[in-house]
Specification:
The chain contains 14 helices and no strands. By secondary structure, it is mainly alpha-helical. It has 2 domains: 188 residues, MFS general substrate transporter like domains (Growth Hormone, Chain: A), CATH 1.20.1250; 187 residues, MFS general substrate transporter like domains (Growth Hormone, Chain: A, Up-down Bundle), CATH 1.20.1250.20. α3 packs antiparallel against α13 and α7 crosses α10. The protein is globular. About 3% of the residues have low confidence.
């Protein structure tokens, strides 16, 4: 087997842990921490925003570190930090520890987020670049499907503190040997191979970097082409990250802790199905129109949950919304790649992706502040649906010439 596929396998496992215990797990932590310490939802939500902000701030350093030192030690260190943050979340005593724990988790998450895993996989593939990254990132959906229900059951059996200790041990025991052994090679050139396992060495990294330097200034219509993607997906992901963070608390009163955990798992399964559909059809469709359609479906799902507060609508609306989750995360680079080409993609999406990550970090605090001010999730979801509608209109506001 070409060693690059083993790298993909390790990145898949990393995605299971970092999304399961990080992104989706934050919804469980929100509920458990507010219940254990009687801290306001808005304050705990702000700490989770620090988790996402820390990720956004350190991403450039993570990319540079993987490029300079390779992923072996970067991801190993990230696994240790993620595990330390998980343990700390379960053993909080002071409010400052809450923010420190989520900041620690945020650094660990950054090493194994989309950027870190993509940088790890990129040197190994050319023909299978998209497929390899897509396969690795399906671990995010599996993390929601498997990790969150098991985490909820572990809390019910052992208590929050003990469950977080065992969860952190699982992350460290699995990730350290895999990353140290499998990720010891930085690319196929060290094995005397080309990309995708073809005979001959891969081209030097400097040649690859030169190919991705921007060749045209982004002015006029080209500028709005980029900013329309940035604004639309920033709006959509503010809503999405906030929803994921508060999903468990939203479902807890009506479904109970186990029911809410299984609903998050089912939402992750729906997200996996959505990713598979996107991979099948996106090359044949206009990605802007498809993105607008996905935003519109999310508007309908959030609006229904907001207006019709019943268990049935909550479950169906969550599954419909979940079907769009992975697609929204994946569509922004696809739009930029389609409209700016391969040569300009790295530079253009570096700008858009950083802005989107930074803005989306405020989703948990946005939901938490509105919840505290309004006193319920129904109106919050109605406002969030308005953000999604704005995102659909913005993404449709730019059309390429000749279309």
């Amino acid at each position: 087997m070409f060693h690059g596929w083993r790298v993909v396998g390790v990145c898949f496992i990393a995605a299971v842990f970092t999304w399961g215990f990080g992104v989706f797990g934050s919804s469980v932590y929100l509920s458990e921490i507010t219940r254990a310490h009687d801290w306001p939802t808005s304050v705990v939500s702000a700490a989770i925003t620090v988790f996402f902000l820390t990720n956004a701030i350190v991403l450039p350093a993570i990319s540079a570190g993987i490029g300079r030192f390779g992923p072996r030690y970067v991801i190993s260190g990230g696994a240790l930090l993620l595990g330390a943050g998980i343990v700390a979340v379960g053993r909080l005593e002071e409010l400052w520890q809450l923010f420190a724990a989520f900041a620690c988790m945020g650094i660990g998450y950054a090493t194994m987020s989309v950027t870190g895993l993509s940088a790890t996989i990129a040197p190994w593939f050319e023909r299978h670049q998209g497929r390899s990254i897509a396969l690795a990132l399906t671990g995010a959906s599996v993390g929601a499907m498997v990790v969150v229900p098991l985490l909820v059951m572990a809390i019910a059996s052992w208590g929050f503190a003990e469950a977080t200790i065992r969860s952190a041990l699982l992350v460290v025991v699995c990730m350290l040997p895999l990353s140290l052994v499998v990720l010891r090679f930085r690319g196929p050139g060290e094995l005397g191979l080309g990309k995708d396992g073809t005979p001959g060495r891969s081209e030097p990294l400097s040649d690859i970097t030169d190919k991705h330097k921007p060749t045209k200034p982004i002015v006029g219509r080209r500028s709005w082409a980029l900013w329309s993607v940035t604004i639309a997906f920033s709006l959509g992901l503010v809503v999405q990250v906030g929803f994921l963070t508060h999903h468990f608390a939203l479902a807890l009163p009506s479904l109970g802790s186990l029911g809410a955990g299984w609903l998050i798992g089912a939402t992750g399964l729906a997200g996996l199905l959505g990713r598979l559909l996107l991979a099948k059809v996106v090359d044949r469709l206009d990605p802007r129109r498809y993105s607008a359609g996905v935003f519109a479906v999310q508007v309908a799902a959030l609006g229904a949950i907001s207006v019709f507060p019943s268990d049935f609508v909550l479950v169906v609306g969550s599954l419909v919304y979940g079907f769009c989750l992975g697609q929204i995360t994946t569509l922004s680079p696809i739009v930029v790649r389609r409209e700016f080409g391969a040569d300009e993609f790295a530079a253009m999406y570096g700008v858009a992706g950083t802005a989107i990550q930074f803005c989306s970090a405020f989703g948990p605090a946005f939901y938490g502040a509105l919840f505290e001010y309004i006193g319920g999730y129904g109106p919050v979801l109605g406002i969030a649906a308005g953000f999604e509608l704005a995102a659909a209109l913005v993404i449709l506001s730019y059309r390429r010439r000749g279309e």
